Amino acid sequence: MDIQEILQWTDEQVFMKKEKHLDSLQRRILQEVWQGEKYPEIAKKCNRSEDHIKQVARNLWKMLSEILGEDIKQSNVRSILETKALSNIYNNNGSQIVGYINSHINICVEKRPDAEDTQTRSPFPPDSTQNKAHTRIIDLTDAPDIPYYHNRTSELSTLTEWILQANTRLITVYGLSGIGKSAIALKLIEQIQTEFDYIIWLSLTNTPTLSILQTELKQFFERSQPTPLPTILDYFRSHRCLVILDDVHNVFSSGQIAGEYLAEYKDYGKFFKQIATSSHQSCLILLSWEKPREITTLEGENRPTRTLHLKGLGEQAAEILKQKGLTHEEKWSELINLYQGHPSWLNIIASTIVELFDGNVSRFLAEGNDIYLGDIEPLLESQLERLSESEKKVSQWLASQDGAVDISQPPADRELSQSELWQAIQSLARRGLVEKIQVGGRSLFFLNPVFKAYIQSKSNPIKEKQ
Q1: Neighbouring C-beta atoms of residue 439, cutoff 10 Å
Q2: What does the pLDDT look like over 299-335, one tens digit per residue?
Q3: What residues pair up with 246 in beta bridges, in sequence order?
Q4: For 359-370, what is the mean pLDDT?
Q5: What is the pLDDT of residue 358?
Q6: 127 versus 209: which is more confidently predicted?
């Protein structure tokens, strides 16, 4: 027997006993262990921590032991399942169940919860044979392992409304690295998954060409299709699909203005535009450090396209400090504001406070409002190294200012033309590095304070807090 038959048979046994199917990660672990892989290798392939993989595996072996009446563990799961499945499958009227998951597509198949849900989302008539067999298919193999979700009720409500009420076809969630884009997307999936026939998460970390990406999407959709459809758009029209593309900034060019595609990836822009401008019932979500350039144009044309700039957590970030065991809670708000409520930055700084000041926030802040960077620096550098030359010059200028500036009144000794200045400001804003405020009816711009501190420290290292 092959692993596909085993997966199908095991999933059926679990469903009969537990009334739920194996999820995508359980299937992947079972498949990899079957092929002789160890937990560290499985963790790397699934983009999860080794501890998380071990915990899921322990729970899986325990559940299968209860269902099959055997002491199942990593070392014997293959032999036991193979023996059990053979005796059941081939001795049951000679029938053979063929699996539908191959070695590089891992899916979680869940039955629709009720007839009404199937009727509204399926392209087939309610009483048809196709509809009765209709399933919801979810593949989150590429999704990152997020240990905590920080409360973002407002942003989550906005995304849910855009998708379920406004039928938005293309959504871009952009923001600084580590701000929580993947976390909110995973929470969104958890809340609205019953509204979709297909859900898949794909990462562009390895910069696949559009052709490779579309092939992977079609392979995913075709797993449950008796007759494959010609294009991705055909699937988007025939079913309600939710596709999340993570790390979209990897197809943008470093050293250029924000959202400028690498030469061999310009067709991504055409693909995104096609999704936004064509009629269908699905949604594509882009997660990126930068806002794609064509999105602004599509929004200006009143297309069903929306953009969410994800910022810091605000007071909700106090939960991070609580988990780290920091003291002097009355100073937490000051610390949160200093580091912009950025969850990753606060996690790093909280660890520093524990290491250097035994968790005492007051002692850490004793020197005033200087921003200590420490282990945050590599994260900042990874974003700043993507800037164009004009953006670097404007960043240096903004870092030298005491407050927000009016770009309609630039300095006389500036190196850039007015057009270049405005384009650089616009590009920095699309990276989340520059913010805009309204003062006396005028728009003023300022550099993110943490990045400002970093740029100043490189110009004058003595200013950085020791």
Answers
A1: 10
A2: 877 778 999 999 999 888 999 999 999 999 999 999 9
A3: 203
A4: 85
A5: 94
A6: 209
The pair of structure tokens assigned to 373 is: 């960077």
CATH number of 382-463: 1.10.10.10
Amino acid found at 85: A
- State the sign of the Cα–Cα–Cα–Cα dihedral 219, 225, 231, 232: negative
Select from 367, 434, 362 the least CA-distant residue to 404: 434
Q: Residues spanned by CATH 1.10.10.10 within the chain? A: 382-463
User: Which two three-digit tokens encode residue 301?
Assistant: 């044309």
Distance CA 418, CA 368 (A): 37
- Residue with tokens 């020791």, as numbered in its chain: 466
Q: Does domain 107-310 have CATH number 3.40.50.720?
A: no
260: number of CA atoms within 13 Å, CB side?
14
Closest CA to 450 of 429, 430, 434, 427: 434
Q: Which residues contact 310 (CB under 8 A, 6 or more apart)?
A: 155, 173, 174, 175, 179, 180, 181, 184
pLDDT tens per residue across span 149-186: 788 999 999 999 999 999 999 999 999 999 999 999 99
In the three-class reduction of DSSP (H, G, I as helix; E, B as strand; rest coil), residue 409 is classed as coil
For CATH 3.40.50.300, the residue range(s) in the chain are: 107-310
- The pTM for the full model equals 0.71
Which residue type occupies 223? R
What phi and psi values does residue 434 have, to the nearest 5 degrees? -120, 135
Amino acid residing at 210: L
Q: Is 139 exposed, middle or buried (0-12, 13-18, 19+ CB in 10 A)?
A: buried
Single out the residue of 266, 325, 327 nearest to residue 292, CA to CA.
266
